[in-house]
Amino acid sequence: MTLTLFITDKCPACARVKKQVDDITKKSNDLNLQIENIKDYPQKNLLIVPALYIEDELYAYGDINEKRLLKRIKVKETETAIISKL
User: Fold this and answer.
1) All residues at 6 or more sequence positions from 39 whose CB lies less than 8 Å from its CB, including other chains
2) Which of 16, 26, 28, 69 has the most beta carbons within 10 angstroms of its beta carbon?
3) How many domains does the chain have?
4) Cβ(18)–Cβ(35) below 8 Å
5) Residue 10 belongs to a domain with what CATH number?
């Protein structure tokens, strides 16, 4: 599963979320974290950073609730496992 975090320079919230998500992804071999600077992606039309995407689907803007993120990731992993068995 790929998590993509869009950030910008000199953004305290971006630094906080980057650390949170980085810590989460280090605990799981199934998670891949991509950090992207929003300046490199003008086509995204994002006005608020940090912006966290899960598998190219917008999950959250700004600070994240770690418990909710963990729950969402677990649900996605379960759904993927069920679909692959069909």
Assistant:
1) 8
2) 69
3) 1
4) yes
5) 3.40.30.10
